[in-house]
Design brief:
The complex is a heterodimer of chains A (208) and B (215). Chain A is of the alpha/beta class and 208 residues long. Chain A is 33% helix and 26% strand. Classes of the chains: A alpha/beta (208), B mainly alpha (215).
Chain lengths: 208, 215
Amino acid sequence: MIKLTNISFIKSQNIILNDISCDIPHNKTTVIMGKNGSGKTTFLKILNKIIQPSSGNLQTNLEKPIPMLFQSPIIFENTVEYNYLVLHKIKKNEINKNWFEVFDLEKIKYQNVNTLSGGEKQKLFLSRFMSYNQKNLFLDEPNQNLDLESEKLFVDLLLQEKQKNKTIVLTLHDFEIAKKLADFIIYLDKGKIHLFEETSLFFNKFNS
Amino acid sequence: MLTYEKIFDAIFISLQVSVISTILSFFLSIIFSYIIAINNFTLKRTIIAFIGSLTSIPPVCAGLIVYLLISRSGPLGWMEILYTPSAMIIAQFLIIFPIMTTLFVNYIQDEYPRFSEELTSYGASKRDLIYLLIKNKRTIYMTVLLIGFGRAISEYGAAAIVGGSIDQVTRNMTSMIALETSKGNVLTGVILGIVLILLSLIISFIINILKKKND
């Protein structure tokens, strides 16, 4: 369990997260929802120890940040294949190209990233992220720019990952996808938890 | 008497001095800007502001500073490089180094936090980050290189003061344009002016292509 106690995050005198306390269950999928600027990304970065909260306490088994899918990931001015492999090569990791094939990137592997569509870029980011094969998955708006077909592929893949008892935390805007994937849903509003419930209960309460 | 040989020499001297000063400034400004942009130290903001203010240094003042340093009675007078291409290279370096450094510092300060935040989570070290930052967006480096070269080749004043505009030794295109026009040889001035404008246009054209590629 990842335990947050009275977590606040203030940046340039703006309160991004305001006194948040909750427990994120292990081996479950938790979806963070909320309007733009509600603090979803900051919440995810704090969970992954990428940024330190201004106050409060975070209890987690993570000793250091693990690979996370960012909302606007870094893209290198090079080919699709280079972008997939470069971080593995730097760390001399064993290279696993399964995810490259899953997202159908083989046919565009020599293409320069500047020529890709938003959806193709997102598939590259997802495959790069998934190739790290981690026990915990943190994803920030992973379905952005994906067409319906690719979105379905992504949801199916995440459902498969869920079967492996992974702890998955992701931010989403789409309630339908959240319903399919989430065990728990957190709804943030102006940096505070507005609602945190098990999925079916969440929709009962949220709609009323 | 003015010959084509002398005109070609002026073009060659301009290119030689500007290419060397640009390359020298390019590599030193990359190293310097990474050191000041990535590390946190007491005088960081002051140094960045000071270098920023040097970007608008008038070329004649840069020339004057170098002149005072390398003239016989100056602290670097022992080098005996006054009125040589080496002195012109130093003067141009003083003009373009702050420009290139400021552009690089801005780029690194924008990108490094983003790189550090995301790529550290993928296990990248500080050294990996710098490597990736240099390799990523190579067009930015090309753009800065061309901006520096454009400024170096078109400056008038600095190289003339410390080079002395010696025929076929330190007389570059801008000095020759000024000299020949003042002597009434307007045609020569116009020919050299066209060469200089063409060079500037080619540089602008390449920068625009690179910018488009970068977008």
